[in-house]
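Key idea: predict the complex, not the pieces.
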Amino acid sequence: DQQVKQNSPSLSVQEGRISILNCDYTNSMFDYFLWYKKYPAEGPTFLISISSIKDKNEDGRFTVFLNKSAKHLSLHIVPSQPGDSAVYFCAASVYGANSKLTFGKGITLSVRP
Amino acid sequence: DSGVTQTPKHLITATGQRVTLRCSPRSGDLSVYWYQQSLDQGLQFLIQYYNGEERAKGNILERFSAQQFPDLHSELNLSSLELGDSALYFCASSSFRAASGGNTGELFFGEGSRLTVL
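Result:
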């Protein structure tokens, strides 16, 4: 039972354009959401997060939007750069619990020069 | 560099064998998590330890076990290995504090141990 779903396995965008990575979740108990980025031969690294009390969080070129009613979040990267090419994992947790993260399967983003 | 160290980086073994994966968390982190990433799968949570005690259990097989030692390093033991156990095994640590109710949920991952079972 996939509680965090990333239905598109891959995305290809042109350098300078916007990348939009989507994520859906089914567990209504989740109240904290994170995005991780993973390069080949490396472990995932934290990118950005959002609490359920917000609907948007921005950090430089990265913005995460949360739509609680739709149980949907998205990561926007503007402008996209070739160095952003990586696998992006969406993750969710229940804040204040044991911090166990439930991950999606990941989306492979390719940014073409 | 996340500060989390995993050894070995690569491991090739045969079916039926037993292996041990080792993880040293970031300095000061009391909580250690183990995740498995199989082909085309996301990161599957296996188990969490906090200050030496098991805190949460996920989809961990009975053939697998883990422990966290007094110096906070952790080991994941995989026995009676099967072909399907071939995967990347990640260890992560966090500053989760049980007494304070948790943290922001950010985990710091090691580079992983790639296990190949032939």
